[in-house]
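hey team, just a heads up i'm posting the complex here instead of the shared drive bc the drive is being weird again. everything in one block, sequence lines first with there labels, then the predicted structure for the whole assembly after. its two chains so it's a bit long, scroll down
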Amino acid sequence: MLVRAGVDLLTEKGFSATCVDDVLNATGISKGSFYYCFSSKEDFGQVLIEDYARSFNARLDLWLQEPDTAPLQRLLNFVHDVRANMQHHGFHRGCLIGNLGQEIDMLPDSFHGLLLTIMHGWEKRVNACLLAGFDTRATAAQKRTCMQLARYFWIGWEGAVLRSRMEHTPEPLDLFTTFYMAQAAAALGVKPPACQPPATPRVSPARPAPAQTVQAAN
Amino acid sequence: MLVRAGVDLLTEKGFSATCVDDVLNATGISKGSFYYCFSSKEDFGQVLIEDYARSFNARLDLWLQEPDTAPLQRLLNFVHDVRANMQHHGFHRGCLIGNLGQEIDMLPDSFHGLLLTIMHGWEKRVNACLLAGFDTRATAAQKRTCMQLARYFWIGWEGAVLRSRMEHTPEPLDLFTTFYMAQAAAALGVKPPACQPPATPRVSPARPAPAQTVQAAN
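-- predicted structure starts here --
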C-alpha cells in the first residue's frame, strides 16, 4: 500500500514536493512503521522507482515481444495501451521517470544512474523489437537505424506524454505517434502499421501480466 | 533581481518545491519587500512565467523571422542557439514551461491557461515560419502540414530538452533535430538544412535582441 501510494504521489507531484507525511496521510500508516520499512525518504524513493520500472518493463515486454505481430505494430499496440490508461486517469498522470527527470538536479545522486539505467532498458527493448523485423540478418546500418529509432521514440514519447498532461487530451500522443510511425516505417522499409486499438497480447506463463501497480502514463 | 532569481529557481526546482524563502535567500531581499511587490507566491509565479515568455518569444522571433534564410534553416539556427545555451549551463537548466508542465496538476489554476497560451504562441511562430516557405500560395493541405509540423516540433523538443538534462549531454537534442529536420523537409518538399552553427541574425531596430534574462533551455 505504501509503495502504491508513493508511486501515485510521485507521479503527480514529483519527489521534491512530496514529503513523508504526505505518504503517511494518504495511507494512514504511522511514521514508526514507515521508518521500520525504509531508512529514509531517499530509500523509499529508490524502492518506488524500482517497483515502477519492474511493473512497466513487464507491460512493455508483453507488447513488444508478441511474436506474431510486426515490430511497429507491437510498438503501436503499446502506445494504444498507455493512451487508454492515461485517458482512464483523465490525463492527470504522467510518466514517473519523465517527471523525476524534470527535477533531476534536485534528486539524490543515487537516483541519477537508476533513472538512466531504466530509460536505457526501455530503449533496448524497443531496439530489440525493431531488430526482430530483420530476423538475424540486419546489416550494421540497419542495426544503427533501429538503435536511433528506439532512442528517438522515447525522446518524443516523453514530450508527448508531457503535452497530453498539460492539455488533458490524447491529441499530442496521437500526433507524435502518426509522425513517428511514418518515419520509422520509411527508415525500416516497411508499411506503417494500421492505427487500430491493440489486440490483447497472448500472455504465456513465462511472461507476467501487466502489474496492477502500473497506473501512470507509461 | 527577484524575477531573475525566481526564473533560475523555478527552472531548476519547479514551482511546488520552491518557496518564497528560497527566493529571499537567493537575493537577500526582505520578506516585506517581496510582499510589497507581489501579493502571493502565485502572483510572483505569474510574473516570472510572463517575463520568461516575453524574453523567449523575442529570442524565437529573432531567429524565425530572419527574412533571407530558408524556414527550416531558421528553425535549425534557433535549435543551435538553445543548444549552445544549455551547454553553457552544463545541461542543468531545462525549459521553464516544460518544467511547470510536469507539475501541472499541482499548480494554481491561473497558471494552466497561461502555460497553454505560451506554448500555442510558440507553435504559431514556428507555423508562420514554415508557411513563409510557400509565400502566400500554400494550399489547405500544406497549411495543415505546417501546423502539424509546428506542433510536432514542440512536442519532441520538450522531450529532447528533458533527456539532455537527464543525461547532461547534447546528444538527445541532436538526435531529435536530425530526425525532425529530415521528416519536415520531406513533408515540405525541400532539402534538409545544413547542420551548421547559426549565423548571428541581423537585428533590425524593430526587433529586440535576445533578452539577457533568457537563461534556460528555451
